[in-house]
Each structure stands twice: as C-alpha cells, then as structure tokens.
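Structure first, sequence second, as always.
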C-alpha cells in the first residue's frame, strides 16, 4: 500500500485526497490500404465492377435535320416490312384501287392495308425504342445526321422514355391537325416537339468526345 503523502506511481490509483486519474493511451493507428491490407480485401477491391461509362455528350438542340432523320427511319422500316409482306401489300393496294366502290373486295383490301399499317406502327415503335435506348442513343436516321436522343438533363434516356416517345407520343402528334405537335419545336428554344415533352427527352447534335468542351454542352 502506498503511504500517505507519497506520489502514486504512473498508472496506479491515487492516494487519499488525490483525484483518481488514469494514464492516457493513444488509439492504435488504423490500417491503410497498402501492403498490410489482408488478402481477401485486396481480392475484393481488384474484382469490383468498373465504374459505368458516361453517356454520350450532347450539343445544341436541333430541329430541321430531324425531318431528314425521320424520313430515313420510316423508309428503312417500310423496306423491312416489304421483305416478307411486299407482295401481299401490293396485291391489296391493287385490289383496293380496281374494285368497285362499296364492294366486298374493296372492304377486304382496305382491311388488309389497315393491318399492314398496324404492323408498320409496331415495327417503327420497336425499332425506335431499341435504338434510342441503346448505347448509340440514336436511330439510323439520327446517326446519319449526327444527332442523339438525351433526357432534358443530358443523360441517357430510359427504355420507358424511348417507348413512350415512339408509341403514345407519336400517335398523339400524328393525330393533331397541321402537324402542330411537330411544328411547336420550331418556336421552342430547346426544339422539343410534343412527343419529346411527353417523354422528357430532346434531340441534340452529338459532340465528339475528343473535341467536346464545357461551352459546347447545350450551347
């Protein structure tokens, strides 16, 4: 037992009348990600999935070139449709023209042509949705004019956005008189048509990755 009036040794309890203290012990240093890292942590870090690639950089919104792009895409879809159904379409069209008005032949031919139109709409919707939601973010027509489809924030569009744009969106704009759904893009600064607004997308020029700069993005 330590005597009265004696100074306690380091780490021992204080004597009578002294405040009890304990020796301070510094915290052990945390291991760093270096040579001392366990092997299983090194393996986990080396096998982690790579960071996702950035989406395509878009430039300024465009409008007039989109007309050429749409014509190219529609022509391509018709060519694909004519491969298996070309003879049937031509036969139905000829019957519809030559058959007497109101006859059974005319009605049957009209139904056949209507069915071909439905097939074209389905093909066009699938084509636009797959191409515009892919890594290319563009259809063949858009690739020809150097354009891409992006969201209003410049990101890659989701598949549901591309589907909405190419299905309900195009149906609505085609039903409006005087192509009002398309023409509204002339008067908007972002050049967005009605189906673009419905799907939250916009068509912009594609900026080459090697020459892109901050000032070129959505100029």
């Amino acid at each position: 037992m330590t005597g009265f009036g004696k100074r306690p040794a380091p780490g021992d309890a204080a004597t009578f009348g002294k405040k009890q203290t304990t020796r301070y012990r510094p915290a052990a240093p945390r291991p760093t990600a270096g040579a001392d890292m366990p092997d299983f942590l090194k393996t986990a870090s080396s096998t982690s999935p790579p960071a996702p690639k950035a989406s395509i950089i878009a430039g300024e919104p465009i409008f007039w070139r989109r007309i050429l792009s749409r014509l190219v895409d529609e022509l391509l879809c018709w060519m694909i449709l004519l491969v298996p159904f070309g003879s049937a379409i031509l036969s139905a069209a000829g019957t519809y023209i030559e058959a007497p008005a109101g006859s059974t032949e005319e009605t049957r031919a009209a139904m056949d042509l209507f069915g071909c139109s439905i097939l074209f709409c389905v093909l066009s919707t699938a084509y636009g949705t797959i191409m515009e939601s892919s890594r290319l973010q563009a259809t063949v027509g858009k690739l020809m004019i150097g354009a891409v489809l992006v969201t209003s924030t410049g990101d890659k569009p989701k598949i549901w956005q591309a589907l909405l744009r190419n299905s309900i969106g195009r149906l609505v704009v085609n039903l409006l008189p005087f192509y009002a759904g398309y023409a509204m893009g002339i008067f908007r600064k972002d050049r967005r048509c009605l189906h673009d607004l419905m799907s939250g997308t916009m068509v912009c020029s594609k900026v080459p990755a090697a020459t892109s700069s901050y000032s070129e993005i959505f100029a």
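Margin note: The radius of gyration is 35 Å.
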